[in-house]
Amino acid sequence: MTHEIFDVVDEQDIVIRQATRAEVHAQRLMHRAVHVFLFNSRGEFLLQMRSEHKDEHPLTYTSSCSGHVDAGETYDAAAARELTEELGLACPLFPLQKFAATPQLAMEHTMLYRA
Predict the structure, then answer these.
(1) Strand partners, 8
(2) Which pairs count as long-range contacts for 83-87, CB under 8 Å and 24+ apart, including other chains?
(3) How much is the pTM?
(4) In b/e form, how buried is each residue of 52-76, taking b as 16+ CB within 10 angstroms?
(5) Is 54 strand, coil or helix?
(6) CB-CB neighbours of 2 under 10 Å
(7) Are 92 and 83 in contact (CB under 8 A)?
(8) Are 4 and 68 in contact (CB under 8 A)?
(9) How far apart are CA 87 and CA 100, in angstroms?
(10) pLDDT digits over 3-62, tens only?
């Protein structure tokens, strides 16, 4: 996981270079992430508990699935990939909101989707 390569971005979410996951997190560099809120046919929302081995916020509840956007990857592609990797699902994704990177959002420009 520490050898993953992310796009480092500026305040406007423009790519300025690439760096490893470890470097991005250690230096608190701006990068990209996606979150998906998954609802079933009854309108129930799936929450997940993060692994105890996560480097940030272990054992806390979070969105249905989430993850970083890899270098050169789009938000849409990353959301679809995370949905498949984490939940084994492929379904339509609907973008809801983009949030600018802040210290409270782990320096991640974040796109939120509904599925």
Answers:
(1) 17
(2) 83/36, 83/38, 83/115, 86/48, 87/38, 87/46
(3) 0.91
(4) eeeeeeeeeeebbbbbbbbbebebe
(5) coil
(6) 10
(7) no
(8) yes
(9) 26
(10) 899 999 999 999 999 999 999 999 999 999 999 999 999 999 999 998 899 877 899 999
